[in-house]
Design brief:
This protein is an alpha/beta fold. The protein is 36% helix and 11% strand. The protein folds into 3 domains: 44-153 and 193-354, Response regulator (Rossmann fold), CATH 3.40.50.2300; 161-188, no CATH class; 378-530, IlvD/EDD C-terminal domain-like (Glucose Oxidase, domain 1, 3-Layer(bba) Sandwich). It contains 21 helices and 14 strands. An 8-stranded mixed sheet has the order 7-8-12-11-10-9-13-14. The chain has a 4-stranded parallel sheet with strand order 2-1-3-4, sandwiched between helices. The two termini are 27 Å apart.
Length: 576
């Protein structure tokens, strides 16, 4: 039982059950060799593990769980490992984003339905981190996260390369005839030298940093390489820290406040993070019952400097970031912009956690007086093409294309794009604007990472390295270029992007935060009247449920019935 001043243990309701239920409850533990005195009256901690051998990003989490268990036992708790869905963005089709909400549902229900007093979330890949946070926010039992960490820097010839920023760059070189297939094979062999998530500031790296800035992960943990022993130290300490959270009754809603979300947005801009974090933060806020409008991202960008010199916005990789001081060193440089009194899962405030931080390498982490850029790394656009918003990663774009007007070359879907993009008969020039339709939450389906449209091979051979590209799809956080993403509402539900035709003129004005097709209202209305929606691709199972209930990108792409939170399940009679 809880001591004086401590929150009561939720799991005691399982052990205080009626005779028949009590037999069933305790026998499930005793049959595994767990002595009753080991678990009754102690905080039971679920280690929700997204381990999988299908996704190398998550393949080391089984080992990490053992270190969490040590910490739980040391602090007087009883650990139980609970497997959850594992999502791997590089390998799942059509996209791991299609299943983020399914994993969030699984996390929420597994926490709520089982005898758990608190949970340690183990997640590593792009969608597993936000999914775990969303599920934990909805059930709102004490929780903290240990992320899996980045892989080691890749090596190709005499260069550090990162999966998959350098994949995109060198694949363009392959398609443009500047490297050979033998070179490409050599790159593959040296790109991923260890388990862990992608090594640039892709979505997984971004979400690890965002989780730390939110206060939901131990300070300084985001950038530790996956295979570094110090990540196991973090895991063991986290096992002890969750016991403190349980005893204090501290819940995710106490940590992930509006102030903490603003801290996370500031961190996102300062590190040059992935555009995907915008969607995930909005979804997490929705589970907490908090409004997080897109315009807030733009408002906070205006005064947040870009400080991290890391690919795809810079030159280095996550391993270098850790050695240079990690996220605390970045946050220390913008401390005056943060809510320093925000609570963290370690028991410290954010201000206390980052106070000792220092920059070790000021070329990797720039000091405040010498930023890589002013005004943040992301821009939120509006206009007649994106009335509900779109996102552009300014820090990874070409400066000369941030103000641009060009002729649209439209692809109705990704299949048509890949079939025709390198066709010599395709009429296209370097000043044209590549437009992809039907890549959004419904149209993709699942909003795949189709937004990084390839530059036609013919133009690559002419030396073209970037073009303005727009879509309602997402882009890998490791991608780069002048790429406008997340156009809302999407074309598949009748958004204005569905009305664009090849030959239309499109204007991007980043300074004014505008994206427009240069057509008058009458022409757009005439085209809208002629537009019809395609039949749903799926009607049954999870895919059918997803298509019927998914919200748009500006709303976080959650399923509409999952927004908000529920009280944790209270055990009742299960037999009799």
């Amino acid at each position: 039982m809880a001591n004086d001043g401590e929150a009561p243990l939720r799991t005691q309701a399982w052990w205080d059950a009626a005779d028949l239920d009590l037999l069933g409850h305790r026998s499930q533990f005793r049959m595994q060799g767990f002595a009753e005195e080991g678990f009754v009256g102690r905080p039971i901690i679920g280690i929700l593990n997204s381990w999988s051998e299908v996704a190398g990003c998550n393949a080391h989490l089984r080992d990490l769980a053992e270190h969490v268990k040590r910490g739980v036992l040391r602090a007087g708790g009883f650990p139980v490992e609970v497997p959850v869905i594992s999502l791997g963005e590089p390998i799942m089709k059509p996209t791991a984003m299609f299943y983020r909400n399914l994993m969030a549902m699984a996390v929420e229900e597994l926490i709520g339905a089982n005898p758990l007093d608190g949970v340690v979330l183990l997640a590593s890949c792009d969608k597993t981190i936000p999914a775990a946070l969303m599920g934990a926010a909805s059930v709102d039992l004490p929780a903290l996260m240990v992320t899996g960490g980045p892989m080691l820097n890749g090596r190709f010839r005499n260069e550090d390369v990162g999966a998959c920023t350098d994949c995109w760059r060198l694949h363009d070189d392959l398609r443009g005839g500047r490297i050979t297939t033998a070179d490409w094979d050599e790159l593959e062999a040296g790109m991923c030298r260890s388990v862990g998530h992608c090594s640039p500031m892709g979505t997984a790296s971004t979400m690890a940093c965002v989780t730390e800035a939110l206060g939901m992960a131990p300070s300084g943990s985001a950038a530790i390489p996956a295979v570094d022993s110090r990540r196991r130290h973090v895991a063991e300490r986290a096992g002890a820290q969750i016991i403190d959270l349980v005893k204090a009754g501290t819940r995710p809603s106490d940590i992930m406040t509006r102030a903490a979300l603003e801290n996370a947005i500031r961190a996102l801009h300062a590190i040059g993070g992935s555009t995907n974090a915008v969607i995930h933060l909005v979804a997490i806020a929705g589970r907490l019952g908090l409004d997080l409008p897109l315009d807030l991202f733009d408002e906070l960008a205006a005064t947040t400097p870009l400080l991290l010199n890391i690919k795809p916005s810079g030159a280095y990789l996550m391993e270098d970031f850790y050695y240079a001081g990690g996220l605390p060193a970045v946050l220390g440089q913008i401390a005056d912009l943060l809510h320093l009194d925000a609570r963290t899962v370690t028991g410290q405030t954010l201000g206390e956690a980052i106070r000792p931080a220092a920059i070790v390498n000021d070329d990797v982490i720039r000091p405040r007086q010498r930023p890589l850029g002013a005004g943040g790394s992301l821009a939120i656009l509006r206009g007649n093409l994106c009335p509900d918003g779109a996102v552009l990663k300014v820090s990874a774009a070409s400066r000369e294309l941030l103000q641009h007007e060009g002729r649209a070359v439209v692809f109705p879907d990704a299949e048509e794009m890949h079939r025709t993009i390198d066709d010599p008969a395709l009429e296209i020039g370097p000043d044209d604007v590549l437009v992809l339709q039907n890549g959004g939450p419904v149209g993709g389906p699942g909003m795949p990472e189709f937004g990084h449209l390839p530059i036609p091979a013919g133009l690559l051979r002419q030396g073209v390295t970037d073009m303005v590209r727009i879509s309602d799809a997402r882009m890998s956080g490791t991608g780069f270029g002048t790429v406008v993403l997340h156009i809302s509402p999407e074309s598949a539900v009748g958004g204005p992007l569905a009305l664009v035709r090849t030959g239309d003129r499109i204007r991007l004005d980043t300074a004014a935060r505008r994206l427009d097709v240069l057509l008058d209202d009458a022409e757009l209305a005439e085209r809208r009247a002629a537009w019809t929606a395609a039949a749903p691709r799926h009607t049954r199972g999870y895919r059918g449920l997803y298509l019927r209930t998914v919200m748009q990108a500006n709303e976080g792409c959650d399923l509409d019935f999952l927004v908000g939170s529920s009280a944790p399940v209270t055990p009742g009679v299960t037999h009799g």
